Amino acid sequence: MIYTNDYESPLGHMLLAGDELGLTGLWFTEGSRYMRLGLKKEAHRRETDYFDQTKEWLDIYFSGRDPGFFPKIHLVGSDFRNRVGEIMCEIPFGKTVTYGWIADQIAKERGIEQMSAQAVGGAVGHNPICIIVPCHRVVGANGSLTGYGGGILRKIALLKLEGHDMRQFMIPTKGTALHFSNCC
């Protein structure tokens, strides 16, 4: 069974989704490229402990603080996408990493010389649990804010919320991320 719930964030309305094991989706409802990805039409609105945890986490996060815990999440996807999601969950509040850095971590784990940063970018871009699985903390090797499934504006807002000096980043002038005003 798939369940849904809602959250009003300072950056817009959000849809929460989950199953018996935990949170499986968190999207801004307007302009999200992959909103409802994997969410079945027969999902039912329901209150759950993990939705309560998620809302508490988001309240703390949007106050500008590190929540210091994770709500119960259930990564649903390929082994590769799930591993990229797990690595993103390890990125500390207020820090960023590059797609290449994540690719290097996976290459080391697999005992191979290299992993494609573009493959990592695809996994990051399809992240169904925005903010909590912090895809906004992944940037291009040159500091570019490209590759964000929902666009630049919310990525900038989330990075600013975490205290980043935005002068270290570059806003791309081309790319698909510019066509979406919302995250995830």
What would your notes on this structure say?
The protein is α/β, with parallel strands linked by helices. The chain is 30% helix and 15% strand. It has helices at residues 49-62, 79-89, 99-110, 117-125, 152-161, and strands spanning 3-9, 12-19, 22-28, 44-45, 97-98, 138-139. Strands 3-2-1-4 form a 4-stranded mixed β-sheet, with helices on one face. Strands 5-6 form a two-stranded parallel sheet. The chain is globular.
What is the terminal-to-terminal distance? Answer: 23 Å
Q: What share of residues are in beta strands?
A: 15-25%
- Quick one: how many beta strands? 6
Q: Which residues form runs of ≥5 with pLDDT under 50?
A: 179-184
Gyration radius (Cα, Å) is: 16 Å
Protein traits:
Arc Repressor Mutant, subunit A; four-stranded mixed beta sheet; alpha/beta; 15% strand; 5 helices; 2 domains
Write a brief caption for the model.
By secondary structure, this protein is of the alpha/beta class.
Topology:
Elements: E1 3-9, E2 12-19, E3 22-28, E4 44-45, H1 49-62, H2 79-89, E5 97-98, H3 99-110, H4 117-125, E6 138-139, H5 152-161
Parallel strand pairs: 1-4, 5-6
Antiparallel strand pairs: 1-2, 2-3
